[in-house]
Amino acid sequence: MSITVVGSVAFDSVETPSGSYERSLAGAATYFSLAASYFTDVRVIAVVGDDFTPEDEAIFKARNIDTQGIERADGKSFFWRGQYTDNLNEAKTLQTDLNVFATFEPKIPAAYLDTDFLFLANIDPVLQRRVRDGLPSAKLVGGDTMNYWINDHRDNLLKMLEVVDILLINDTETKLLAGNRNPMKAAREVLNLGPKSLVVKHGEYGATAFFGPNSFKSLGLDAHHPFRAPALPLEEVKDPTGAGDSFAGGFFGYIASQPSLTPEVFKKAMFYGGVMGSFAVERFATERLQHLTREEIDERFELFRQLTHLD
Amino acid sequence: MSITVVGSVAFDSVETPSGSYERSLAGAATYFSLAASYFTDVRVIAVVGDDFTPEDEAIFKARNIDTQGIERADGKSFFWRGQYTDNLNEAKTLQTDLNVFATFEPKIPAAYLDTDFLFLANIDPVLQRRVRDGLPSAKLVGGDTMNYWINDHRDNLLKMLEVVDILLINDTETKLLAGNRNPMKAAREVLNLGPKSLVVKHGEYGATAFFGPNSFKSLGLDAHHPFRAPALPLEEVKDPTGAGDSFAGGFFGYIASQPSLTPEVFKKAMFYGGVMGSFAVERFATERLQHLTREEIDERFELFRQLTHLD
What is the DSSP letter of A137? Predict the structure, then answer.
């Protein structure tokens, strides 16, 4: 079934120890939708400026992604300039220009109203909540956020967390949101805020899913049994940008492609998330995510299995 | 078959966010031997001072650990005072008194000369090499080291690495030893220095085993297939001290308990390492490692399996 994602479609200029690039197509919704497109149909809600070219749109179209929800506004697209130095897990932000995103009011195309799966990528939680309320048909909602919203817009974020089934954030965000440094306790605090499941992304160490009191208990997934998927140790990490959004795309895309959400599907989704994240970082920007095959994806899935399984 | 371990038997005073303790029995050889004792017979080579009491020795004896290699010297035992504040993965050293360890000359009891498995816990690599040369019967040698030896005693360390089959160190030490921050490349660099396998410990994220050009290739373990074991997310980490040594003890102890080193045994050993590390940190000092049962250990092994396996 199809996924609708709302989030940023942007341009990034990035410098890493392996090289640099200027104004490549990027943004959370872009990475998410490319990654998810290998599993299911994807629709995007975003806003871009007049610097968004037919060539940029062709990147979505080539992956069969529905772009009618990408609004064109006067001005420039969201722009981010970042740098990775020694620590590839942490970007240094050099420049953020919200541009057309500063006044973004998400508009939901009529054709998206039958959406079954909704992913709220990292934007203002007020907008995330509004999109969720505008798509009541969505039966499973995933979401992401970041330190800025946790620190400075907590009340709005809490209202968004009430309507998120699966929250995908990183270690730092989890501890900050919970006000607790112990991973298990922090997870429980976050799960008390609404989500049925919390997927904590650990960068090069993979990700751990926790299940809470409002959880998928009927599925046999509960707080006493977290689940951890690895990341693949890679020869070269060219560009960590978008790894988390690609994880979310692989994770949610796989779930949406399956007849129902069983524990087995959830666990495999964690592995597919790691797989798509590992592809994303192997090349600059979205390069690797544009031209994969399902065979390559399933081969890497098998590598992840061998990496972690006793037999 | 039995393991001989050489390393420190010491006293620690430690402060963590959960509390503190003064002068508890500790040291790498202590944590290692307690953890390994649940799998096989263990013999210790170390030196202690006149502050090492019959009660301290009784902790080893209760686990059937052979202490005839623990030499008594005039003076005080090795003492360490450390503090963990926010980051439980990193101790701040407040005081290190080498005491009788400053002039330690390891003596190998005649009864240890048939040793099959040898673990060189973190001490001066000159002494590690000397003990290895003094136990030519050892058919599998594990080893550990730390930043101090990597930075300031590199030549001696390289001579020790020539005779180590499995090196167990953490992320920081791996990158420092290799001079490379990429995990795969750093692992390859280290494996070029001698070890057949490198087990990189990631603290709360588990550990990854890499296999190199001098590797156990006959076993089907090679550089293209690293193996990752998780750590268990715990409700409370009371005291991270000794987690790495306990990992090594569970890992090496399990290997020594098996008829031969197969890929399956190696992978299970990685899990048992994580299991013993997770027990160690649940209580202060060696408290938890003193009173386990094999049933508790195997129950936790099963939790680790559920945490990582798709079915």
Answer: T
